[in-house]
Amino acid sequence: MSSTHQEPTTPSVVQLRLVIEVDDFDTAVAFYRDQLGLAEEFFVDSGDDARVIALQAGRATLELITPAQRRLIDNLEVGHAVSPPIRVAFEVTDVDDAAANAVAGGAEEVADAVETPWGSRNARLNGPGPIHFTLFEELGQTSTEGPVATTDDDADSGLGTRVT
Asked: Taking the CB of residue 66, how many other CB atoms lie within 10 A of it?
């Protein structure tokens, strides 16, 4: 199946923010800011335990997948369906070091890092809050920019190839 891409005539979205409610705010901040190294953009304490922190994670993309693709990815990375409908993914420079650091900081390892057919090495973890996430390292590429397209040869496998 192919889709057509049309550039918007007037760009309207300039930032993606993923907003996640967490029960233990301090633990989540310590993990994502201090352990994973996400830079603090802003913090607001509104009183009565109403707090928000925005953490920068480089560039953002919205990756939309079908339930079948989610199961395929789970099977490749973990061995069985495990992720909820929303999963966060962080690109890192060394997935093994980042995963070890995340576990040392309180994350639960779901699966060891594996090489994927689309050229990355991915590890799965559960972090503080209701966040199931992937740490991934692009292998042999200097950039992750460029859309992912599916070719006719890939249609049977369900895998896409990165177009650069």
From this structure: 9
Distance (Å, rounded) from C-alpha 117 to C-alpha 130? 28
Helix (H) or strand (E) segment spanning residue 126 = strand 120-127
What secondary structure letter does DSSP report for 35?
Answer: I
DSSP-assigned beta bridge partners for residue 111: 124
What is d(CA 163, CA 82) in angstroms, rounded to the nearest whole number?
Answer: 28
Domains recognised in the chain with CATH numbers = 63-162 (3.30.720.110)
Q: What integer pLDDT is reported at residue 6 of this predicted model?
A: 67
- Contact assessment for residue 103 and residue 140, using Cβ atoms and an 8 Å cutoff: no
CA angle 21, 19, 28 (to 5 degrees): 50
pLDDT tens, residue by residue, 26-71: 999 999 999 999 999 999 999 999 999 999 998 888 899 999 999 9
Neighbouring CB atoms inside 10 A of 105's CB total 16
CA 37 to chain centre: 15
Q: Residue 125 and residue 133: Cα distance in Å, rounded? A: 5
